[in-house]
Amino acid sequence: MTLASLREVHENFAWFVIIGNGLAGLWALAAHFREPLRTRALWWFTFVVELSVFVQVSLGVGMVAVLPADEVPPPPAVCQVACSSASNEV
């Protein structure tokens, strides 16, 4: 698998992680108020989406591991702004 395709998988899988965790959170919140929603399926769904976080991190580590240290791409621009302002406060 090339770096470009690994990066695409990493970026696309991020949407599964984000949307899946959001849905699991909404389901769990609704189940807090509505007892019929408290099913075993909720816990299996939560397990799957939390496991997807581990997969996402592994994809990111794999992507960075194939690059030499001086060629690791910088984080997105949004993080650069937040990170630079946070480092100036220290």
List keywords for this structure.
single chain; about 90 residues; mainly alpha; 3 helices
Describe what you observe in this structure.
With 90 residues, the chain is mainly alpha-helical. It has one domain (3-89). Helices cover 78% and strands 0% of the residues. The protein contains three helices and no strands. The protein has helices at 3-33, 40-65, 77-89. α1 (3-33) runs antiparallel to α2 (40-65). It is elongated and about 55 Å long.
The main pleated sheet reads as: none
> How would you sum up the global shape?
elongated
What structural class is derived from the secondary structure elements?
Answer: mainly alpha
Mean pLDDT across residues: 83
Tell me the distance between the termini.
Answer: 40 Å
Determine the fraction of residues in helical runs and give it as a percent range: over 70%
Task: Count helical runs.
Answer: 3
- The radius of gyration computed from the alpha-carbon positions, rounded to a whole number of angstroms, is 18 Å
What fraction of residues sit in β-strands?
Answer: under 5%
Unreliable runs, pLDDT <50, ≥5 residues?
Answer: none
Report the count of strand segments.
0
Helix and strand element order: HHH
**Number of separate domains:** 1
Task: Give a quick rundown of the structure.
The chain is built from three helices and no strands. It has 90 residues and is mainly alpha-helical. The longest helix has 31 residues, at 3-33.
